[in-house]
Amino acid sequence: MYERAAGDAAALARRVDSRQHTLPTPCAEWDVGALLEHLAGGSAYLLDAVGGDPGEAAAWPDASAVAAVVARLRDPGALERRSMSPAGFEWSAAEAAAGTAMDQLIHTWDLAVAVGDDPTLDSGVVEAVVAMFLPAMPDIGREAGIVGPAVAVADDASAQDRLLGAMGRDPGR
Fold first, then answer.
1. What is the pLDDT of residues 55-103, one digit of tens each?
2. Please, are residues 28 and 110 in contact by the beta-carbon 8 Å criterion?
3. Which CATH superfamily is 2-118 part of?
4. Which residues of 105-147 form beta strands (DSSP E)?
5. SS3 92
6. Which band of pLDDT confidence, cut at 50, 70 and 90, is reported for residue 42?
7. Average of pLDDT values for 141-157?
8. How far is C-alpha 118 from the geometric centre of its chain's CA atoms?
9. pLDDT mean over 19-43
10. Cα 132–172–2 angle (5° rounding)?
11. Number of helices (H) and strands (E), helices first, in the chain?
12. What is the pLDDT of residue 143?
């Protein structure tokens, strides 16, 4: 899940022109440049969580940065390591990988919307994230101040739209 979500985020980031770095994003506090920095930090965070060298992620958005994280996640015992989540609670590296996948997925949509790219996300990753994190995680994120207010979506909305709405995004944007 992390490999697909982070790979898609990095692939989109490689298509962003430096002239687009000042464009606004759906994350009101971040422009494209700040969002790219945040996305790059996901790989460094996970490398640190599994006892790797966060510097291995310095090549992001090059695919080698994502590959370095995936290789470390496959190390024996790596997924059982413990670290602090961005929301301030302790979790396993397996949970950190899933949480980082969700973060990369949501911010891939943010980036696509900001630069006018196709905002359609990997449906398999979306379904996995919905199953793992809804409905509880967005509320935990809101309590920690890292997720905005939920946006109402139709009862028959797609999994992508339900996830985006739960994470404070307007999927109709």
1. 899 999 999 999 999 999 999 999 999 999 888 889 999 999 999 999 9
2. no
3. dinb family like domain (1.20.120.450)
4. none
5. strand
6. very high
7. 88
8. 17
9. 95
10. 30
11. 7, 2
12. 84
The token pair at 88 is: 């301030």
Can you tell me the distance from the alpha carbon of 48 to that of 17, in angstroms, rounded to the nearest whole number?
A: 29
Residue-wise DSSP of 64-122 = HHHHHHHHHHTSTTGGG-EEE-TTS-EEEHHHHHHHHHHHHHHHHHHHHHHHT------
Q: Domain limits of the chain?
A: 2-118
Class of residue 35 by CB neighbours under 10 A (exposed 0-12, middle 13-18, buried 19+) = buried
Which pLDDT score, from 0 to 100, does residue 146 have?
80
Q: Which residues is 156 bridged to in the sheet?
A: none
Other C-beta atoms lying within 10 Å of the C-beta of residue 135:
10
> What's the pTM?
0.93
Residue pair 14/20 in contact by the 8 Å Cβ criterion: no
Q: β-strand 90-92 against 82-84: which pairing, if any?
A: antiparallel
Token reading at 97 = 């990988």
